Amino acid sequence: MALKHSWGHSQVLASLLLIGALVTTPHMSVQAASQSVVEESAGGMTRAVNRMIGGIASYARWPDGSTAANRQMCVVGTPRLAPRMAPDTPGRGSISVRLTPAAGVTPDCDILFLGRMPVADRRQLIAWVRGRPVLTITDDDAACIYGAMFCLNSRAASLSFSVNLDAIGRGPLRIDPRVLRIGSGQGGA
Amino acid sequence: MSGSDLPRSAPRIGARTTLQKLLSRFHFGITLFAVALSGLTILLAGVTALRGYADRNMELAAQLGAYGVEPALVFNDPVAAREGLEPLTHIPGIARLRVLNDVGRPVIEWTSPTADPAPMLSRIFFPRPFAVTVERNGSAIGTIEVWGDSSTLVDYVRLGLLAGLTCLLITAFGTIFLARRFEYELVKPLNEIATVAHDVRLHRRFDKRVQPLGIAELDRLGGDINALLDELQGWQGHMESERALLAHRASHDPLTAMPNRAAFDEQLARRIEAAEGRGGRFALLFIDADNFKAANDNFGHAAGDAVLVALSACIKETLRKGDFAARIGGDEFVVIIDPFDADAVAEELAGRIRACVSQPIALPEGQTYRASVSVGVATFPDSGNNATALLTAADAAMYADKLANRSR
Does ipTM come in above 0.90? Predict the structure, then answer.
């Protein structure tokens, strides 16, 4: 429901061909959802989650410009998929993690990871984020309807994410359309 | 005199070709060569250029693919990689795509469903795939490989050959048309010259001339021929007048301009034959000046000549249409009176001649001289039925007249 709007906020990187490919129905994507491959070993899911969060963060552009800078991730609530959060960013830049209660969220949080938490806390945090350059990711909202920008979802032995375009559209963050596309294809299914 | 016995300059060669055929053959050969050469050059240049474009196309496709599959490699998502490659599958000329992850393991692979039209060409033109490293924030996260195929090249060559063939046809037709025109322009004036030469040779039409021609060289040739014809015409005219003069001289007396003895003999024989044929008659007058020798001696030869000229003038004056007069000796004249209707005509004519002659003749040295003539008449066939007998009879009659005059 929330996916159809706010394309105007898409990343400047969007190339014409890519948009063209978005509009046309790709004949290969018959699969309902694209999924990251999760290694079948102990900690495989944790690694996959960290890789995904790092990937998403690397495709987000904060208003201060740099993508390569170090980012502060504040983890609120209990993460369901990965007990130990250590986002794995490709290339330059890194993300430091801080566990914090809902009341302890400060404006120095660039990324807000919402684990399992009371509904009231979540609503309060989402309201706080509105208008701020903060990337919100949750692993406790499979349908991605509670206002987080990215929602991680584990299904069988794979990990996927979906995108809430409304949430992204409300904030000043810029997200690479290629990522939006991957998330949309999944969330729309 | 006729042209047929002029010597031939060269023996004839068996199979001769016409100028038109020769030009036509040359034109066609040159055109074919030029068109084939240019067509081949363009085709080769086109294939080379196309190869460059195809290379760039592959490179661009690889770059585009790298951009498209980058997030998929970041998220390790084969389905997203497939979607990222999707735009590339619409680009013609790509045979195969492959994406490798950071450790070199294939993530996704795609092969074009359309068969390669010329695998050999593909192998020659694209021996290796174009590989582009996919990077994220400066570190390599995978590789994309693109294999090209020969479909665009084959299309171009096919199109090029078709266009070349069309061009060849158009050019061939155009050249044939132009060659025809050229041949016409060249052959027409040549034919004109030939026609004039032929006419002059066969019909002796020395008044024919070559018209001014549009081609300078041929016009010069025509001008030379015209000059030659002018000369020929001059010679011809001169020769003809010379011949007429000679013929006149042979048959006429130079002093009185009257036919001479030879012409008279011929004329007499003809008249006799004609009269015999129709059973008719004619008369012959034999006129002789009296005392001509004495006049000659007394007044000189110039005076004698004047007398003879005056005599001949009188005789000519008297002649009717159809009559014939000639001087056959020094002071002897004959007149053939034909038609001869009545016997009185001869006497009447003789009387008129005598009357004319009796007028005083002015001599060159101022004196005057009164001449007289003796005239003898003979008639055919009464006096004789052949030339000798007739002439003898007329001569005898003249002598009789002369004797009668002396005795008077």
Answer: no
Contacts of A36 (CB under 8 A, 6+ apart): A48, A51, A52, A158, A159, A160, B75, B76, B77
Residues of chain A with C-beta less than 8 angstroms from the C-beta of B76? 36-37, 48, 51
Q: Is B265 an active-site residue?
A: no
Are B25 and B161 part of one and the same domain?
A: yes
Q: Do B86 and A28 touch (CB under 8 A)?
A: yes
* From B331, B338, B343, B401, the catalytic residue: B331
Report chain B residues whose CB lies below 8 A from the CB of A92: 137-139
Smallest CA–CA distance, residue B35 to chain A, in Å, is: 42
Give the residue on A whose Cα is nearest the Cα of B79: A34
Contacts B68 to A, Cβ<8 Å: 18, 21, 178
Give B-chain residues touching A36 at CB under 8 angstroms. 75-77
Domain edge (last residue) among B189, B205, B221: B205
Domain that holds residue B386: 261-407
Q: Is A117 exposed, middle or buried (0-12, 13-18, 19+ CB in 10 A)?
A: middle
- Residue of B71, B79, B87 lying closest to A20 (CB–CB): B87
Number of structural domains in chain B:
2
CA-derived radius of gyration, chain A? 16
Identify whether B376 is part of a domain: yes
| Domain contains B244 | no
Look at residues B43, B65, B118 and name the one whose alpha carbon lies nearest to residue A18.
B65
Check A18 against B68: CB less than 8 A apart. Answer: yes
Q: Do B72 and A182 touch (CB under 8 A)?
A: yes
- Burial-class residue B317 by CB neighbours within 10 Å (0-12, 13-18, 19+): exposed
* CA B182 to mean position of chain CA atoms: 17
Judged by CB atoms closer than 8 Å, whether chains meet at A90 and B78 is answered as no
Which DSSP string corresponds to B55-75?
A: HHHHHHHHHHHHHHHHHHHHT
Could you tell me the two tokens for A154? 């584990």
B74 contacts A90? CB cut-off 8 A: yes
Q: Are residues B192 and B301 in the same domain?
A: no
Do B134 and B30 reside in the same domain of the chain?
A: yes
What ranges in B75-150 are assigned the alpha helix state H?
A: 78-85, 119-125
Closest chain A C-alpha to B84 CA, distance in angstroms: 8
In a domain, A59, yes or no: yes
Contact B68 A26 (CB under 8 A): no
Asked, for residue B226, whether it belongs to a domain, the answer is no
Nearest to A88 by CA among B99, B82, B106, B141: B141
pLDDT in tens, chain A (189 residues): 344 333 344 343 444 444 444 434 333 322 234 567 776 676 788 888 998 999 898 888 888 866 556 889 999 999 988 888 888 887 777 889 999 998 888 888 899 999 999 999 999 999 999 889 999 999 988 888 888 999 998 877 788 888 998 888 888 998 888 888 888 764 333
Q: Which residue has the tokens 């945090």?
A: A125
